[in-house]
Amino acid sequence: MDGVTIVNHPLVQHKLTLIRDKNRSTKGFRTLLNEIGMLLCYEVTRDLPLADVEIETPLTKMTGKEIAGKKLVFAPILRAGLSFVEGMIDLVPSARIAHIGLYRDPETFVAVEYFFKAPTNLEERLVIVIDPMLATANTAVAAIDRIKERGAKDIRFVCLLAAPEGLRLFTGEHPDVPVFTAAVDRGLDEHGYIRPGLGDAGDRLFGTK
Asked: Does domain 4-206 have CATH number 3.40.50.720?
């Protein structure tokens, strides 16, 4: 599907299998989600522009490379996106953080917003929206809508798992936003959960039911 990158690095796929296991502990799930987030961050930032910079090592002067251009904003969708973004922050500690509070109504699957806070000048920044699951895509689409309303123009979306139904809706609504995911699963069940999936990411992450 155009605009969708499946990150098939062996480490990502290995950790994805581990995190799917229903017997994985809350601590183990949380650790793996953090680690996969870090690995996916490598892919979503692979093409960031670089600029030459003059530095001096203990031995001599040299020209090195530093990230140039737009500053990064990580925008996790609450609540499961919080832990997913932690590994990314370890790699890019200077990134700004936006918080997007959305939940999916269990009956209608419509996205309901309850909180939104983002840095200013989003039009000058690369915004990476983060959510472990792209199922129906209703919350993801609503999150991108809000980010665009605030002026963002350069946006990417990162998820752990995606369903074909969600990808079709998302790419139809926001064809300008590339998607990065570790896998595209078989599809959704009658409750809107990804199958085979990994269950409710938020519940498994925080130990709630």
From this structure: no
